[in-house]
Amino acid sequence: MDEKRRTLLKTMGGTTALGALAGCISTDGGDNGGDGSEGDGSGDDGSGSDDGSSGVDNPGTATLWTDLADAEDEAMSSYVDDFESETGHTINKEEPGGELDQQLDTAIPSGEGPDSWIWAHDWVGRFAVREEPPFLYDASDDVDTSLDSYTETAQQAVQFDGELHGLPFASETVALFYNEDMVDEPPETLDEMVSIMDEHHDPENGEYGLSYPVTDPYFVSGFIQAYGGDIFDEANLEVTLDSDECKQGLSALETLFEYVPADPGYESQIVAFADGAAPFAINGPWEIGNLQNEIDNLGVTTLPTVDGNNPRSYSGIQTFYFSSMLADADQSTVDAVTGLAEWYTTNEDVILNNAEEQGYIPVLSSVVDDSDLSSDVQAFAQQVDHGVPIPSHPDMDSVWDPLTNALTNVFNGDEEGDAALDAAAETIRENL
């Protein structure tokens, strides 16, 4: 995923969806058997430790790198404290600063990298293919939690070539926000949305039909892929951005270009909606909290259909990564890292709380199937179902910049849509 995009979103309101908790997961690497209730043979009073806690026999120390928004960071710190109290493990949560992937590029080769970090799944393939030095650790033999606990999409996101490089805890994609004071009924189709935008679009007076960062590939992926085309065909490792289907999708997207503020940048776009100067915004769940503070009656729904097709937006799966630092670490450190990931990603109560408070989209199957999720979260979850995960293959790194340039040229009127996608696809193929 575009690192600049994610950095900006964290500054604006956070991108990382968090999930947590435990009780049912062994965090001792399985040494004490299934229930751990009498592993010390202490007798019927259950006082297995001096303080009555249920900590592990051999607690470890591990380092976790994060790059979270303030509210997310506060929640994560609280959950880490709970994990430490329950298990006896020590998690040193640190913020390295700067671009996280650049910090990892420097720290891991020097042996100073973290034991785990948090980011979306799209780095899995990129890091998994690195061999000198390796960047990821295969924890297939260390994790006790069944991957069936998570949605199928989330399961696939954290694996590469049969190896398990992390555990998933939430997903993210974009959906349609609307101001209920300006929109009576949310549009189900693009045509209906255009009709409503026409009623409000008056740029000379600072009013617009839509707030949408239309030159960002992540944000517009749904429309480009609405007709069944793939920006990048991960299954066959082919660049298919210049397919007829993607060109149809871009043509539909160009309809929306006419209704956004002149500056397509993220901040300029979101401010228009937050200030009540547009009836619609297309954005992610990380903005729910911010927008609820600005819009009295905020609604969220799935992206409108295009000629009967649901836009296939890219989704990111937030992940606890397992770093290659674990390969040479003590077993207690491996247990601390995998234990935290299992504990954090399988707690229904905390995941539900975070979904309600932050709009995070759960990937824990038992919660996804829960009808108690808020309507906002359900809307994003439905859009995730319509969409596709961001390809995690390393070749995807070559896609972002050429596609961004193509979108920018089309938006500015410097290039026709079909020609722009043809040129972008050619550039991507040359760079692979």
From TrEMBL:
Q: Which Gene3D superfamilies match?
A: Periplasmic binding protein-like II
- Protein's UniProt keywords contain Hydrolase: no
Which PROSITE patterns is this protein grouped with?
PROKAR_LIPOPROTEIN, SBP_BACTERIAL_1
CDD domains from the entry? PBP2_Maltodextrin
GO MF annotation terms? carbohydrate transmembrane transporter activity; maltose binding
Q: Which UniProt keywords apply?
A: Signal, Sugar transport, Transport
InterPro entries assigned: Maltose/Cyclodextrin-bd, SBP, SBP_1_CS
GO BP field? maltodextrin transmembrane transport; maltose transport
Q: Which Pfam families match?
A: SBP_bac_8
The annotated region (Disordered) lies at 22-62, 83-112
In the UniProt record, which is one GO cellular component term? ATP-binding cassette (ABC) transporter complex, substrate-binding subunit-containing
User: What top-level branch of life does the organism fall under?
Assistant: Archaea
Family stated for the protein in its record: Belongs to the bacterial solute-binding protein 1 family.
Name of the protein this chain belongs to: Maltodextrin-binding protein
Question: Which species?
Answer: Halorubrum aidingense JCM 13560
